[in-house]
Design goal:
By secondary structure, the protein is α/β, with parallel strands linked by helices. The protein contains eleven helices and eight strands. The protein has a single domain, classed as TIM Barrel (Alpha-Beta Barrel).
Length: about 300
């Protein structure tokens, strides 16, 4: 079993004293980078074997909307340093020069807004942006996760750029909470798998959806991909989140504490998942119980 980290954005916003902005975790990366390093370290100490760069909201499109385009390269450099510093710190505590064999995943997210692929640029423009992000993240990354992909077009652009790096590519789809057979943008999950696997990757994950929806969607992956992964979110619903809004509009579930999340994870493992972590609202405490249970 491979244990991933949990959600960076929500946990960083909870730890920060700054006002929530539409730049989300990118704002924390600029102004409180030590919080990012500490959170990476906390996830490693909890048992995570892979940490993801804190660049989810650091895309050219999102930064342009916040009049911060000039911060693109700096944000990626800071994110890479924060992840490397956390691994170096962990290496000291575990007595290993390799940082306890922790790997860094590059992050290729939706370019404009989560769950709304209709807001993304056309394929060729998206591909060029993802190539730019791969170039910025490549010096720090052991693999790339194309995450919270909500349409075939969006996923294909991200996967094409990631594959060009020559490093492992993991593809993470976000499925509809009320119709897990579909991606958030409406494409059928089976069609997405057929078009992207194994041409771009043989590792497919389901992320940033309700645990119950993921349990219903996992059978669509069985026998179709080589490696299955899951990292669910802890929101009651994402329907109130639209481009230009902040996570203040979302509500955290009260029935998904670390033990309850681990119980869902055990079901995912029984369904064939061999890569498990957490997304939004899933913090180090969840990963600790997850690691103790499955690791």
């Amino acid at each position: 079993m491979i244990i991933l980290d949990g959600g960076m954005g929500q946990e960083l916003l909870a730890r920060s004293k700054r006002e929530v902005t539409t730049m989300w975790s990118a704002d924390i990366m600029l102004h409180e980078p030590d919080l990012v390093t500490q959170l990476h370290y906390d996830f490693i100490q909890a048992g995570a074997q892979i940490i993801t760069l804190n660049t989810y909201t650091a895309t050219p499109q999102r930064l342009a909307l916040n009049h911060a385009s000039e911060q693109l390269e700096l944000l990626h450099a800071l994110a890479g340093k924060a992840a490397q510093d956390a691994i170096s710190r962990a290496a000291v505590s575990c007595g290993s020069g390799s940082g306890c064999d922790i790997k860094i995943a590059g992050c290729l997210p939706p370019l404009v807004a989560s769950y709304h692929p209709d807001r993304s640029p056309e394929f060729e423009a998206s591909l060029q942006t993802y190539r730019q992000l791969v170039q910025l993240q490549n010096p720090f990354s052991d693999l790339f996760i194309c995450e919270t992909m909500s349409s075939i077009n969006e996923a294909k652009a991200a996967c094409t750029a990631a594959k060009e790096s020559g490093k492992p590519v993991w593809l993470a789809f976000s499925v509809c909470d009320d119709n897990p057979a579909q991606l958030r943008g409406g494409d059928a999950l089976v069609d997405a798998i057929a078009q992207l696997v194994p041409e771009f990757t043989n590792t497919v994950l389901l992320n940033c959806s309700r645990p119950e929806a993921i349990e219903q969607a996992l059978p669509y992956l069985t026998d179709k991909v080589g490696q299955i992964g899951v990292y669910a979110n802890g929101f009651t619903s994402i329907t109130s989140l639209y481009p230009g809004t902040t996570v203040k509009s979302l509500t955290t579930r009260k029935d998904l504490d670390p033990q309850e999340y681990a119980e869902h994870a055990q079901l995912w493992a029984q369904q064939g998942a061999t890569i498990i972590g957490g997304c939004c609202e899933i913090g180090p405490a969840h990963i600790k119980v997850l690691s103790d249970t499955l690791g």
